[in-house]
Hints:
Mean pLDDT: 90
Oligomer: single chain
Amino acid sequence: MHVEVIGSGPPLVLLHGWAMHGGVFLPLAEALRDRHTMYLVDLPGHGHSRDNTVPVELDACARAVLEAAPVAPWCGWSMGGAIALHAASRWPQRIPVLAMLAATPRFVAAPDWPQGMPVATFAAFEAGLAADWQATVERFLALEAFGLDDARVRTRQLRTLALERGAPSPRVLAEGLRLLESTDLRPQLPTLEIPSLWMAGRRDRVVSPLAMQAAAALTPGARFMQIEHAGHAPFLTHPQEVAAALLDFLAAPTPPAPPSSEHHAHATV
């Protein structure tokens, strides 16, 4: 699995969202490179990890990242946030701090989770993926930028970034949508053992800030914050604000990790 290492200082792992790759975090990495050594992961099947055959599933992806990165805080964006939250709930001894960036424990709405994406909207993405995956990715990128003052510019930026390392295969895209559709990590929130930051963009039309606020309310010791003029990709539109929030959060004292008898080796990257 491809991992790009940038910067100096304590480690920080960054996980991207659906149809993207680790390079999407470069503006944020530039803002943090003097304070942290960042591990920009290309998740299996994405970017330079396109030939990696690990399935796009929570446990499989989490284990793959654990093998490729040191003990470190994880920051997950969108789908990457679901993977990060799953890993943090299972292996808190490896992930002492969690930052959720425009990410939620449950992506799709339910009767007891009205803050999620409407079921009909998500179903349209699934149907579109089978008919024309390229057009479906385009629509998703447009939704990520929707509501921003410079939405067209940001959509073009996201499109360029998405294709910069080659598009993931339709199989990987379908696996990612299934992950988003089926994941519900709300039961893990009340027992999460590590500090967590839930950072939302007020104009986000993919992951509602209300969903993130509700998730933070279910999580002991969680901190919620909102970037006023940001959408679904605040690290692109407001990298300095995201960097400042992460630095403030990561500088806070971290309680000691609970002991564990399970050992996880990690590869040198």
